[in-house]
Amino acid sequence: MRRWSVLSAFVVVGLVATPATRAQSPAEFAQTAAYVATLQNPDGGFAPAPGRPSGLAPTSAALRIMRYVGGSVPDVLKCVEYVRSCRAGGGFAPAPGGQPDSLTTSIGLLAVGELKIADKELVDAAVAFFHDHAREDEQVRMAVAGLEAVDGKSDDLPRWLDVIRKQANPDGSYPEGPGRAFAAGTVAATVLRAGETLANREAAVEAIKTGQRADGGWSKGDGPSDLAASYRVMRALFLLKERPDLERLRAFIASCRKADGLYAVTPDGQGSLGATYYASIMTYWSRLLDGQPPIVETAGFEPLFNGRDLDGWEGDESIWSVRDGVIVGKSGKLDHNVFLATKESYRDFVLSVTFRVVDGKGNSGVQLRSAHVPGGEMSGYQADVGEGYWGSLYDESRRNKTLVDALPAALERLHKSDWNHYVIRCFGNHITIMLNGAVSVDYRETDDAIARDGLIALQVHAGDPMEVQFKDVLIQRVPSPDREAGDAAGFHVREVETPQGPRAYTVYVPEEFDRSRRYPAILFLHGAGERGDDGITPSQVGMGPAIVQRGGAAAVVVFPQARKTWQAGSEDADAALKALDDVIKEYDVDPDRVTLTGLSMGGMGTWSVAAANPGKFAALVPVCGPGRVEDVAKYKDVPIRAFVGDADSPRLHLGMRAMIQALRAAGAEPGYTEYRSVGHNSWDRAYNDPETIDWMLSRKRP
User: Fold this and answer.
1) Backbone angles phi, psi at 415, to 5 degrees
2) What is the side-by-side order of every strand in the sheet holding 521-525?
3) How confident is the model at residue 23 (pLDDT cuts 50, 70, 90)?
4) Can you list the pairs that 193-197 forms with residues at least 24 positions away whose Cβ atoms lie under 8 Å?
5) pLDDT digits (tens, 9 = 90+) for 360-380
6) What is the average pLDDT across 110-114?
């Protein structure tokens, strides 16, 4: 099977340029992920450096790095085989055929946890191995970490914790000296990871925080700061939900970065996978402690803010500025609202923005589909920000009222004085707001006179002095299908007659469509959230936005809409096939070059419809939706590429993995990608990888 290009593991679209003090920007995440992916060897394991043999330690480190920078393992199933091959004598050895030891067994369990290998016998054998071999401080600490990764339990835990607690004083405080912070971090992290209570929480926090050096890092003793020691104490602070000086920490992490995307333990050291893991996870922890999304998803999005200046925006620059890669709105006492608006208008889109109101004082908001009005105000929808309005949808200078209050479950995730994250979706008359990953607003506009397009803007509200900050401002443009007929390029709504009556669907016609040539076609099956009968919504999630982002596709793409299910033989599946036949006839599509793809419910439908229609499709591309393992014989001669996020539900993630394992066992060679740390929306990564659509367009039935 051909290995994917290293950059296909992490799609980078319109990355934001930001200062180095952030430690890892989206572009740097992508570079790190791409480099680490190149270290996977044909045996499935990872090497510590190019050209070196695989080892269990670099494999475990690579898996964890990918998790925290959002990459993907080029061949995850071969990696599973490699990790299993390192088992020896109840524990794990550094490489296949080697001798097991306690520390390596812990490393093996960390890899097992990362790969979600469910194997009770393996865990029980490791517990028995630790009983006989985990004696010294570091062996005990790592045994606790390894068992935590696989939800394992050991009767030796009380004995182990006695060993670790000896690094503290009897009252739970820590001996004075240069190693005080490191000892506090070791004890606190181990005890908390074991699920036990810390004897003196305040003493641990004080010892660690006062041990942070001027450069932002920590050391094990009286030597210079290093990432290994910093990682140890930061794990404790993260578990304790305590924040040190995070800006200084991120600056220290950034100082350890190397040109190839790896990190060194110290700024003047050599890059290594271990140090890169420390840097990646500490960046992850620091962002979570700040209230930020740990990974900023860029696949399918383009930046509205370049991280350097206000190019593309207009507003009062005595109020609005850029500082350290952040848009800052700072005011004295104002008698009117002040806005910073985009110069470009937007219709249907998904907007992602991270923001904070300094000290939680003041009022702000994000304007949507808005327009300038006399007096400097703006009229339009506003995703509100500020006390009493967090997470709500307001109608600014138009109806002048809150249209929908935020749902209580979303407000439970609010960080009033720290960073928060909005994902706002404006599709036709439907507006949804997600606050820190929870649905805050779900609103449908009933007034047809309300504008469906307009500017995006940021607000500083009238009133007392305040400061609001915005960063990672990204937009995903989605199609707005029209009802034009004929050969016009773009997205159009059509109808097809079915036994249940006419069914609306969208068709994409490529640029410079020419009836003298025959085009390939793609049949796209949407997910459960796009069910309905408008014929438009299916084009606005998944494949449709990816076509917009790439500037078009040399294929005719069909977007049918289900009312209930895509299972083969259902009215919805039959209507989808009728829509495909309608398009094949109307646009003279090559029937030998039709690819079937879908996401979630549509991914499951892809497997189901293909099984019921053998020989009809040139290729299958299911995304985050498994099929039935008993049907694999029906697909084994069909080219397949499948995608899923490994943070998706186990039913979907492991179901997809089981399908691919069964196909390989049957002699097929499907492509397969598991995106690390990606949840259910793996379709943005899958469809925005330029290789994916190109691969679909190149398929043809034998």
Assistant:
1) -115, 95
2) 490-498, 501-509, 556-559, 521-525, 594-599, 619-623, 641-645, 671-675
3) low
4) 193/144, 193/145, 193/148, 193/239, 194/144, 194/148, 194/157, 194/160, 194/161, 196/161
5) 999 999 999 999 998 889 999
6) 98
